[in-house]
Design brief:
Blueprint lengths: L6 H18 L3 H7 L4 H9 L18 H14 L1 H21 L2 H12 L5 E4 L15 E4 L3 E12 L6 E7 L9 E7 L5 E6 L10 E12 L3 E2 L5 H37 L1 E2 L2 E2 L4 H30 L4 H30 L6 H10 L7 H13 L2
Parallel strand pairs: 1-4
Antiparallel strand pairs: 2-3, 3-7, 4-5, 5-8, 6-7, 9-10
The structure holds acetoacetyl-coenzyme A.
The site of acetoacetyl-coenzyme A (CAA) has 23 residues, from helix 5, helix 7 and helix 11.
């Protein structure tokens, strides 16, 4: 067993850390407040190769492993989870699915530009009445021979307005249940595709979340990903990898809050000494550190499983379940350690606390992760 990172992984981790400090930190509070998408920062992340990290260089990607991707997600999320979710969705839910299951023509047309960060993508599964219950898709895709006609609504779509290409799951044959669902590549310009209002969110406020409407959108048959009826499996397989990205995001949020808290506890004085010298604070830091390290092992193990070609449904669900809980617990304690200062925006921890909550909800709630885990461990 080897717990050390390779030289290349350390280099990438350092590059992400430096980028986060130099280019994400300035303005992060203002972007959160104004709900402003980090357009310039996303462009820069494209230049650095962060938008298509695991994609083969033949298709414009960085050709890195999943562990490197998790390291980058962790570093970016320590500072700005609104920016890191753009990275996660583009890498895991869009580029990965397209590279694994798209055909050559689709890869040439979409993957290269997505992987280089020239354009960004979105993944559209959730609906007003199909969040956790993802098989109950109401959006329809009627087969009209050489094209499909899409009708319906998608909800809470990350990169909703900033994306150029959308992977959309829709029901083609209701009688077949989940086996009648297909996944489509939908261009923003397709007539009948309409972007709904932006959501005003608790956290990750710099990210761009919208509902989407499809009104008789004509999608060419060549834009379907995989065989007829593969859409639900496509979504599930893609989400299993996505959960590694979100688990790493949760880990980063927790680690960011912990680092700020440790620094603050060494500076802030009360009762004649730095507060780190009070056991009430030191023990909080001890708990945070231990839980973050445990979350880190689960996240890296899930990423390693994926890199080894092992099944990672179970490990990614466990990583997301645990890391998101640690993110929530740690950020609440971080605000507590900061006291009154923790409650105001300048100290960052209140934002991290707000950002942590979504990691227990998107890409499968914690309750859904428990379904995946329990089914997996009781199968035989
Ligand atoms: N890989 C391959 N196939 C899978 C799979 C996986 N990981 N998980 C399930 N499947 C297959 C099953 O084998 C089954 O196929 P067969 O009938 O051929 O055996 C089929 O999918 C249906 O599976 P279930 O019977 O288990 O379906 P279910 O209705 O019980 O639901 C679920 C399973 C795990 C609860 C699923 O609905 C789920 O994951 N729900 C949560 C959805 C989710 O994560 N949404 C997040 C939205 S995306 C987002 O948040 C992105 C963002 O913007 C950040």
């Amino acid at each position: 067993m080897d717990f050390s990172l390779s030289e290349e992984q350390i280099m990438i981790q350092e590059a992400a850390r430096e980028f986060a400090q130099n280019e994400l930190l300035p303005g992060v509070i203002e972007r959160d407040e104004a709900q402003r998408f980090p357009t310039e920062q996303v462009k820069r992340m494209g230049d650095l190769g962060f938008m298509g990290m695991m994609v083969d260089p033949e298709y414009g990607g960085s050709g890195l492993d999943t562990v490197s991707y998790a390291l980058v997600m962790e570093e970016l999320s320590k500072v700005d989870a609104s920016a890191s979710v753009v990275v996660s969705v583009n890498n895991s839910l869009v580029c990965w699915g397209l590279e694994a299951y798209g055909n050559e023509q689709q890869k040439q047309k979409y993957l290269k530009r997505l992987a280089m960060g020239e354009i960004i993508g979105a993944f559209c599964l959730s609906e007003p009445e199909a969040g956790s219950d993802a098989t109950s898709q109401k959006t329809t895709a009627l087969d009209k021979g050489d094209h499909y006609i899409l009708n319906g609504t998608k909800n809470w779509i990350t990169n909703g307005n900033s994306a150029s290409v959308y992977i959309v799951m829709a029901q083609t044959d209701k009688d077949k249940g989940h086996k009648g669902i297909n996944a489509f590549l939908v261009d923003k310009e397709m007539p009948g595709f309409e972007i709904g209002p932006k959501e005003n969110k608790l956290g990750i406020r710099g990210s761009d979340t919208h509902s989407l409407n499809f009104n008789d959108v004509k999608v060419p048959k060549e834009n379907r990903i995989g065989e007829d009826g593969f859409g639900f499996k496509f979504a599930m397989k893609t989400l299993a990898g996505g959960r590694i990205g979100i688990a790493a995001q949760a880990l980063g949020i927790a680690a960011g809050a912990y680092e700020l808290s440790k620094k603050y506890a060494k500076e802030r004085k009360a009762f004649g000494t730095e507060i780190v010298n009070h056991q009430a604070i030191a023990f909080k830091l001890a708990d945070m550190h231990t839980q973050i390290e445990a979350a880190r092992f689960l996240v890296y193990k899930a990423a390693w499983d994926k890199d080894q070609g092992n099944n990672y449904d179970l490990s990614s669900a466990m990583a997301k379940l645990y890391a998101s809980q640690v993110a929530m617990d740690t950020t609440i304690e971080a605000v507590q350690i900061h006291g009154g200062n923790g409650f105001v925006k300048d100290y960052h921890v209140e934002r991290l606390m707000r950002d942590a909550k979504i990691t227990q909800i998107y890409e499968g709630t914690s309750e859904i992760q428990k379904i995946v885990i329990s089914r997996s461990i009781t199968r035989d």
